[in-house]
## 1
Amino acid sequence: MKDKKESQNFFVKKMPLYLILSLSAVTIYGLNYTFKYFNTGQPKIENPVEPKCVNPLCIIRETDYKLTRPILLADSKGDDKKYEGIKKQINDNIESFEKTSVISNASVYFCDLNDGSQFNINPDQKYRPTDMLEITKMIALLKQSEKKPSLLEQKVLYQKRINSTTQAPSSNVSLENNKSYSVRSLIYAMFAGSDENATLALNPLIDQTLLKGIYDAVQEPYPGINDTNYLTTVANYSKLLKVLYNVGYLTETNCEIALELLSNNSFKDGILKYLPNGVKTVHYFAENNNGNSKEMHEFAIIYLNNKNYLLSIMSKGSDKKSLALLFSNISKIIFDTVNKAS
């Protein structure tokens, strides 16, 4: 009996009241947390991370391989709401030109190449890209050179079969009639000097099955080697520049070559006009005449403080100078906005 009493006294002495209360509180908290955990499935997250990609993605894959399907593009679907203000400015600018009847249509596509956010103005309007088909021809020749590296140095006879009435060649690009040039030199003349005869000289070398595969890859109908009636939208044709920028179809080296070639285009009165000196750009310009109606198109990648973006404009109108002014106004609006945010 004495032993039992001593044992009870031991526990009373060794377990103070504050310790008993503390253990009780911990036990109640533990039971409460366990109940919440198993009823909610997981602990509550105070600050959930918002996903960066708000719009669903359209994934375009290459299908030329047996077991793999390389991703060519992962494009956002729809316009990002953060661009509503800049879209209004550009729409107001287009409408002011339309009121003067110097333009009849203009479509604009913008894409932030860092996060893929984009907007599109008049996205369903179709245009004849004509000379812009040269981009796909260059891509085809560079793709062929990956299997045959000597192709770019192969000599080809250059002949002046037509006189270009749409674009004056750059002063530093002048090829002599009935003289042979390397494929590399002819591609350069095709872009830097807008030389249609260089394009004609290159056409027989292009693998048309491969050329068709390029259009299939970006989900565009195949226009053939020289279909002047081919129609496309501004966003669809922009895919070609994004494929080069993202190194989705050619090797890294050939994508660099392609973009360098595009950076030599001689037209400076559109998208590039109000850009500051020293801003790196890759761009291509083309125009075509159809009676009194004129189409003018320009595509550009602007490299701005690691905030690189793609701007594409396609248009119809009657006056080249007015169309060029519209392009430069749109470009300035976008550059000023992006530059301020970067």
Note: Residues 66 and 132 are 31 Å apart (CA to CA).
## 2
Amino acid sequence: MSETAAMISGVPGRYATALFDLANEGDALDAIAQDVATLGAALKGAPDVVASFSNPSFSRGDLEAAATALADKLGLGDLLKNTLALMAKNRRLGQLPATLAAFETLVADKRGEITVTATSAQPMSDAQKETLVSALERSAGKKVHLQLDVDPELIGGLIVKMGSTMIDASIRSKLSSLQHAMREAG
């Protein structure tokens, strides 16, 4: 099983794969990918809406009407709008954020891209970013989209997450390992 297939599983994976296959067959992958990005951005800014998707006090009809209204308001295409309606009908809207993430992973894999998250103690310079992206692209064999986070508690160094691989080269981690070794020896 490929690494992408392993990450795309469960209910979100089934909906994401179905949406991906339909978009790919209809030569609408780019349009649906844009719709998914639009919907994902809207949901990130509305955690209350996402929480309401899992609320059992809403009927299937209410959820379907809300999903359709959301799709209309955002100007989403029919394929994604129908997917949302189906998810609402099946009470699966609570899985929507994971479904969108799974879809984006499938699209990136088809395009030969991978998203890598790097966390550093301080903001990285442009030269550091270019060096990191270049090294990651050589390692992954794919085009890398880099998401950067800053966490001053790392003290120094870097944590890189690429697919299911995580490399923790932070000073905090090294100090923690040293502290643990000293406790074991003492």
Note: The chain has two domains: 3-109, 112-185.
## 3
Amino acid sequence: MTIEISAFAWVPPFAQGYVKDLRPRWALAEAGIDYTVSLVGNGRADTPEYRAWQPFGQVPAYRDDEVELFESGAILLHIAQKSPALAPRDKQEAATTTAWVFSALNAIEPKVDNMILPAIFHPGEPWIEGARAAAEDILRLRLNSLSNALGEKDWLTGRFGVADIVMASVLRGLQDEPILRDFPRLAAYLKRCLARPAFDAAIKAQLATFAENAPPEAAAS
């Protein structure tokens, strides 16, 4: 089986380690499945060829011997079907996994982004402080619900799976934020996820891609 995922050739340092091709890289590492990387750079994201694969010009996109698809959550659910290590064991686990993947992407990730991204993309703007406070209040409600739902379980569905890959990749954005300290159950959950060897392999692979394709001015800095 030949698997190919798309990834940006290079991004600025603040985004390195966080680009969403990390998610299928992680899942494929957990599954022990080899893959190749199709690099997106030098305007390729806006070409008709790439937009036919990823309509928004983003990453990741995915293809194997049978299908092409895009969006990281959909890609992970597809990868899970190919892996004994990740495949749900029954219909209920499959349904729960799907629900948690959607929850990570729809209920949690937008609230994390609303809190942390404005200061990155609009530094120094006078509205940032008030917007962050409001966004943090909403995020806190979601994190409290997530913590309660996780309870004393190690993993969202009872065993590690692609739902945890998505949720951990979302929560990573809060690693350096004080808010995560208020949710020790989630902090411990994130630590468990990131301690997995497959995560280490995935992030090293992504960072290696950026190092290999750094523009001269970045390499010199």
Note: Residues 91-196 form a domain with the Glutathione S-transferase Yfyf (Class Pi); Chain A, domain 2 fold (CATH 1.20.1050.10).
## 4
Amino acid sequence: MRILFDAGHPTHVHVFKNVIRMLEERGHRCLVTAREKECTVELLRALDMRHIPLGNHSKSMKGKLLKLFYFDLKLLRIARDFSPQVVVSKGSPYAAHVSWLLRVPHIAFKDTEDARINDLLALPFTSAVVTPACFLKSLGEKHCRMNGIFQLAYLHPKYFTPSVKVLKELGLGEEDRFSVLRFISWGAAHDAGLAGITPEFAERILETLRGYGEVFISSERRLPPALEKHRLSLHPSRFHSLLYYADLYLGEGGSTALEAAVLGTPSVHVEKVLSGAVAAPSVNSGVFRELRDKYRLVYMYEEQEEALRKAVEILENPDSKAEWRERRERLLAETVDVAEWMATFIENYPGEA
């Protein structure tokens, strides 16, 4: 079977990489198309995965609408040459449109409830939508639920072994304490009306956390000089090892907050509503709620001051890391092998995994 995967974000590459490996080991032929957002294409190269870049995202809403037609046409040309029997994405409108035009199934693996524009563009052209069981919405007859979250497809111990070499690369020993900060661009369609940490408060966070060890900053946006000198210089494929060994993650990136939680690293997420919504999307996310309320692996705050207070509380507790590791073990024990489940679902579609 020929399977086309469409990736628009580095996280999508991680979610699909082990699924693709399994499918190829079973004799299927896979191809990845990718928008050049952050390190998406760089990761595909590092993983030596067969892929075709589609070009860069646009940051403006007008540009995104124009790019919709551009990516649709470019992906359609590639898909016609590849002749896929199924198209897979994390809810890509482009993948949905092209699969519909080619009259082949589109399977969307989705975990974001608050993506109205994307859903309007993609779901009518999608054959099946797979979400975690904790997803808060019902998406009708197309909707399938899975007892797991997508971060486990690549961060479960079966698939991920942290490399202690990353610490040596950064001049750290195994006993050294450090935190990871993350700032995003707030340029995605679903980020409209949202904000996170102000530049002024970011410097206060940095100085506070430095009282407990080194601080490394991952950022999609430009940083003031005081923060820029702490910007992380590390290959994207090694970032999860750093996150695994960290004593704390604090930031605006929802994907990174979930990854830290799944790795057993104390995770604090900041996301504030400026207009339009009653609550931040993370509050309305089944995955965030599950990891917060059931497993106590992540905290979510709209106010940056509250987030910093929680971060200090975590760092002041010498048992925090051990407690998070225990909570992670419970999560692993109570969920399925997500990568295996996804591969089997794709391979057997329209049957069941």
Note: The chain has a mean pLDDT of 90.
